């Protein structure tokens, strides 16, 4: 009988196109998931998703004959004992880019070696290997366009996706582990069940990911280039981000399926997948990215932290409808449209002068797709301090952005229903509506909907002055 192996699931909670799983599928295996503590442990919304994703993976594995073992704690301590219990000589897992995860993997590798067990890492989450892809001069990429050009070229030879193993056999001596409920991932009393509504929007797990991809290819891909910036459009974008984050579907499956479908929209969509790759490339090479500005001069930026302003933004009560609609969509569904993520993030760091790390932390806790690489790279990009960032002085006007990308107000009406009776002309600027229009819509600003928390021209001038002060400091 061949030696047993452990398959350590991390951000690749699927059976199909899983190189680490396929490497051990012919041997008796112990599939394990370890809930780890530490910096950037999953936030609230991501924990909701993780619960349901583990439930789905557990069912799929049990059906094939190798039930999933759930554990909680430090892999450096747990895995050597587990390997000894099942007589495993190898542990296979997907490579990760998060700094704490990489540190943990290096130390787990060392701890296992002492006991004669190998930790073997595979590419399960990305299309490229961040440590292998380099610029012509041998440095990591810091700019998206040349990165994407290079990776696009490499992907011409992308191998086909792997099938899921039909049967698995379980390693003798496997411990029972914890029950899913014992992982305590869901909101619990006395905490209100803020995630109660999520299930109406999402189906976590591999089957849900496949269904979403199929529906997007059918209804969304052809119109993607035209409609991906319309936050109110059905299937304007794929909604695959939480599935991709936890690896319920691989980027290689998505890449090949989109190419097979082809047509208009394809190239734009593939480029978005490469933004995901780029974020992970950056995180791999700049592990400080989640906490510190990549442009170091921004460490001295004169932010003006203000708890009341931050709270108004978090709760969708800023008085600017596109901002409030986005923040409420986030709260109610665990997801926000990309265009609106950019507008809300810009408003927080520019008009409200709140540190980008505050916005990053809120998104971390409330997004079902919260992903350390994509979230930190995007916040730094919006704040102007990222590697390939939009210049700080380019400041989105939330009223004009709303009018441009949500011209009929369908998105705002959906998430801010109290504004629904307003005529289109004022749907993005109720504060400019004459009293008679407000009265006709049954609205009193300050009572039914907030008055603006900041005046746009003043907020913009303050942001530009802060930026000028920073540049002055840098020059001094
Ligand atoms: C401030 C801010 C924070 C963000 N935080 C996250 C996050 O925590 N997790 C996350 O997955 N994305 C994040 N994004 C990127 C982007 O908003 C989401 O990936 C996208 O909205 C997901 O929706 P979708 O699956 O319908 O995307 P689609 O348009 O269908 O794109 C397909 C896939 O490409 C990837 N992708 C698309 N755009 C980006 C991008 N700009 N950066 C990285 N990957 C991208 C995603 O995996 C996405 O699922 C953030 C963007 C901003 C501006």
Would you give an account of this structure?
The chain contains 19 helices and 6 strands. The chain has 476 residues and is an alpha/beta fold. The protein has 3 domains: 4-125, HUPs (Rossmann fold, 3-Layer(aba) Sandwich); 126-160 and 206-285, Serine Threonine Protein Phosphatase 5, Tetratricopeptide repeat, CATH 1.25.40; 296-469, DNA Cyclobutane Dipyrimidine Photolyase, subunit A, domain 3, CATH 1.10.579. Strands 1, 2, 3, 4, 5 and 6 form a 6-stranded parallel sheet that branches. The longest helix is centred in the first third of the chain and has 21 residues, at 44-64. The model has no long low-confidence stretch (mean pLDDT 96). The structure holds flavin-adenine dinucleotide (FAD). Flavin-adenine dinucleotide binds next to helix 8, helix 10, helix 13 and helix 15.
SSE string, helix = H, strand = E?
A: EHEHEHEHEHEHHHHHHHHHHHHHH
Task: Report the sheet-strand fraction.
Answer: 5-15%
Rounded to the nearest angstrom, the distance between the terminal CA atoms is 71 Å
Structural class: alpha/beta
Q: Using the coordinates shown, work out and report the CATH topology of the largest domain.
A: DNA Cyclobutane Dipyrimidine Photolyase, subunit A, domain 3
CATH top level of the largest domain is: Mainly Alpha
